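Figure 3 (text version): structure tokens given as input.
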């Protein structure tokens, strides 16, 4: 049943008759002195801001509500952003996206809030009530109408709060919640919201196709029949008191003067149009179902139009102080910006349809709600100040810092040879160094058990046998050794090494005879890997050990009978695997983390055929029993890590169809709900996260279509927030692992006697030359000796420089203690070759920014 017909069945004439008898007790209420206190920014509903909006549209943050946000944001005097959601709650978010409070009503909220000078918040709900809340979210009063309230209230200069209802009435209440007056139209009042002029005029549209002009006392001044199915948009009052409004399904914008005299009309291509916005010079902007955004002069002539591939028909534009235009809509839904001449500036994609309209804050941040349940904040990043100090030369580059028990693994791909090389980045202070051995392989997983013991695993493709052979590497504190066992067949997915003598690995294999996939598992006993695979169909993606006799593995299996994918969870008792029953648990699990005996979480996704989208899946293990605690959010999760028993972080990504780019996501999990904590504008995808008390890292990659290059993505966690810290490395990262925290274990040393002889003089450092060749390719010439490749002779270098370590950077021949501490010492200078002298390929590509000097060779990074 249509909304207006449904609501008419709720019409309670007796209730209205009683309401009309309530005496009016005027209490003063003024709009808040904020940047955007109500729908369309002001009582005239012009959508015009006194502030400049974002010129680049980078994401500052986004935060989730419980359901779609169709209302437009309203900003309080302290900068708090208020929005309503389909989950029946009004939310108040602080400028840093922290939730200040929320208030639940009896039905969904489609009415945008309005805020008065005392920061009281007024809004309607589909439970037929208008609510007034304090700035702290406490109920002051509510007023019951006889129909849904989706119309957004306006706060007038003479105390009244105006709003419409599906019960056909326009209401005027004083700030104490008492009825001042009401006016009955012949049709329901839906999304059309009251617009006020400076002369006591109140304007509102109805589904009876009529725009009504009333006095501030509720008397009819005039009316205008616009035709079409009705008026569901909000009128705007422009300079000189002219009124601009549109009609549903005619695609026509009308203009009338303050007396109701017709001025002009403009017909768009077809269909509905949005509520109009009015610029400072009287120019009129609106969107249409014909895929265009229009700009008209004050007399109705076309100034410009811009055709898009999506519909901006519901979201009303906003105009900033420089006549920049911000609109939104369509599918895939986007926020987009134009300058005053109609030049397209930028766009930003969301994960759901947009019915909300933009609001511009005092600092230029643009806020808008989306059907993907999120409130989005877009801004212009503050330019990095130009340093006043001279730019450091390479000799002044800070050292990388001491190594940490933190590794990230992945691969680089050589398209010329069609082979992949492993990448293993080790954390050194604020930088990452590649310490991978020279070989062919792609690495998918890494697990650090101690400072001197870590494992990395993946596979290498055998083009002759056309199979992928499993590769396992082991770290001894200074280098990696290939310890791949023979006969370890199958597709490797994950490993968990509890110590040097205990570990499990999981994957799958395809049975050609049965044409089915079966799970694959291996056990490490300190000296060898043993195949301990059960005969169970499916795939295993993650494994987590609690003890030698307790472990779990997660994945999925395919049921050919009903053509559905179901979740698979296995339990390990120290000698064998047992499938845990998960009845009707559709979907798959990608990863898990165990926090203690019988405690942990596993994450993945399932397909929702009704909504046509993926839903996040989270399973919790409590007391050894697994249960579905999925929040129901759209999307999927790749990995989860718990920093404590009650808090964790999960990673994923979403694809922007219009930009054809992927954006990374980091979610905080509190055991019940997910909160988006992604650093602003982080492109790409994140596949792995590992957190510890006070620290953490998330890794992945992103693809740049302009350069056709895959770059790594890294985010760092400081215990309270995440920051993107991606180096400019053209590598693909798949996993990250943090080992035991604390200082590196150092063996007890017996002090050597102080030498009586005079120490040998410090030898003269050997210069090293590096050259920037064509296309910015950088070559390091260790010791100034190896030849440059013939394709880039030295005389073709655009610029060369020489680095000579200072005596303080190159230790002399002072005797050192006999015991050698475990681990690789940090380099003392900015250019140190981490590869053995036998490596004869010192050349590579610049994959860095100006703050991190480095060269990527075929065998590793050189710093």
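Below: residues designed for each position.
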């Amino acid at each position: 049943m249509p909304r207006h017909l449904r609501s008419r069945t709720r019409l309670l004439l007796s209730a209205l008759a009683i309401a009309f008898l309530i005496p009016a007790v005027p209490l003063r209420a003024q709009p808040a002195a904020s940047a955007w206190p109500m729908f369309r920014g002001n009582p005239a509903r012009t959508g015009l801001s006194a502030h400049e909006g974002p010129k680049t549209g980078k994401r500052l943050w986004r935060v989730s509500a419980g359901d779609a946000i169709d209302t437009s944001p309203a900003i309080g005097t302290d900068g708090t952003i208020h929005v309503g959601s389909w989950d029946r709650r009004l939310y108040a978010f602080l400028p840093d996206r922290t939730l200040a409070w929320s208030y639940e009503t009896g039905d969904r909220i489609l009415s945008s809030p309005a805020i008065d000078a005392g920061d009281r918040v007024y809004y309607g709900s589909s439970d037929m009530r208008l609510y007034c809340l304090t700035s702290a979210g406490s109920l002051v009063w509510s007023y019951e109408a006889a129909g849904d309230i989706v119309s957004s209230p306006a706060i007038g200069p003479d105390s009244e709060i105006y709003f419409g209802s599906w019960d056909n009435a326009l209401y005027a209440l004083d700030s104490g919640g008492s009825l001042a007056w009401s006016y009955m139209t012949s049709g329901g009042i839906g999304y059309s919201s009251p617009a006020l002029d400076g002369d006591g005029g109140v304007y509102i549209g109805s589904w009876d196709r009529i725009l009504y002009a009333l006095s501030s006392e509720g008397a009819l001044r005039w009316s205008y029949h616009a035709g079409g199915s009705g008026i569901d948009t909000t009128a705007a009052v422009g300079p000189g008191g002219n009124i601009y409004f549109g009609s549903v399904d005619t695609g026509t914008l009308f203009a009338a003067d303050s007396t109701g005299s017709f001025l002009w009309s403009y017909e768009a291509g077809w269909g509905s149009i949005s509520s109009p916005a009015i610029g400072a010079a009287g120019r009129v902007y609106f969107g249409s179902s014909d895929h265009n955004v229009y700009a008209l002069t004050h007399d109705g002539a076309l100034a410009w139009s811009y055709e898009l591939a999506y519909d901006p028909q519901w979201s009303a534009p906003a105009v900033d102080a420089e006549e920049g235009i911000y609109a939104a809509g369509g599918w895939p839904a986007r926020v987009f910006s134009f300058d005053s001449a109609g030049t397209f500036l930028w766009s930003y994609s969301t994960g759901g349809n947009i019915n909300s309209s933009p609001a511009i804050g005092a600092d230029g941040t643009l806020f808008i709600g989306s059907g993907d349940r999120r409130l989005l904040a877009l801004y212009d990043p503050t330019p990095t100040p130009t340093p006043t100090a001279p730019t450091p030369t390479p000799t002044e580059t800070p050292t990388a810092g001491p190594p940490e028990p933190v590794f990230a693994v992945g691969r680089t791909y050589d398209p010329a040879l069609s082979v992949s090389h492993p990448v293993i980045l080790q954390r050194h202070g604020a930088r990452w160094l590649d310490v991978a051995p020279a070989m062919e392989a792609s690495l998918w997983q890494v697990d650090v058990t101690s400072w001197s013991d870590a494992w990395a695993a993946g596979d290498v493709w055998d083009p002759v046998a056309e199979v992928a052979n499993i590769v396992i590497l082991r770290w001894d504190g200074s280098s990696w050794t290939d310890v791949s066992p023979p006969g370890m067949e199958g597709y490797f997915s994950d490993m968990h090494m509890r110590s040097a003598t205990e570990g499990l690995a999981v994957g799958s294999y395809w049975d050609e005879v049965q044409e089915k996939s079966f799970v694959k598992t291996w056990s490490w006993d300190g000296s060898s890997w043993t195949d301990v695979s059960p005969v169970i169909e499916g795939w295993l993606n993650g494994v987590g050990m609690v003890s030698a006799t307790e472990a779990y593995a997660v994945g999925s299996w395919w049921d050919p009978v009903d053509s559905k994918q179901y979740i698979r969870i296995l339990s390990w008792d120290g000698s064998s695997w047992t499938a845990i029953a998960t009845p009707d648990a559709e979907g798959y699990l990608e990863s898990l983390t165990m926090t203690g005996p019988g405690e942990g979480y596993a994450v993945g996704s399932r397909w929702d055929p009704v909504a046509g989208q993926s839903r996040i899946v989270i399973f919790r293990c409590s007391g050894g029993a697994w249960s579905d605690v999925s929040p129901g959010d759209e999307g999927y999760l790749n990995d989860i890590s718990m920093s404590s028993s009650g808090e964790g972080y999960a990673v994923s990504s979403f694809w922007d169809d219009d930009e054809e780019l992927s954006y990374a996501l980091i979610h905080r999990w509190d055991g019940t709900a997910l909160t988006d904590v992604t650093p602003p504008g982080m492109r790409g995808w994140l596949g792995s996260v590992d957190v510890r008390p006070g620290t953490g890292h998330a890794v992945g990659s992103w693809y740049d279509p302009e350069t056709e290059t895959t770059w790594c993505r890294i985010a760092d966690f400081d215990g309270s927030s995440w920051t993107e810290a991606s180096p400019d490395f053209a590598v693909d990262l798949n996993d990250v692992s943090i080992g035991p925290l604390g200082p590196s274990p150092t063996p007890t040393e017996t002090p050597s006697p102080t030498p009586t002889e005079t120490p040998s003089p410090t030898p003269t450092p050997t210069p090293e030359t590096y050259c920037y060749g064509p296309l910015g390719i950088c070559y390091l010439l260790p010791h100034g000796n190896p030849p440059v490749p013939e394709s880039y002779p030295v005389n073709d270098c655009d610029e060369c420089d020489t680095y000579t370590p200072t005596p303080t950077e190159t230790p002399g021949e002072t005797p050192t203690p006999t015991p050698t501490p475990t681990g690789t010492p940090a380099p003392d200078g900015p250019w140190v070759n981490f590869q053995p002298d036998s490596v004869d390929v010192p050349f590579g590509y610049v994959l860095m920014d100006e703050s991190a000097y480095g060269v990527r060779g075929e065998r590793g990074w050189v710093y």
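The mean pLDDT is 79.
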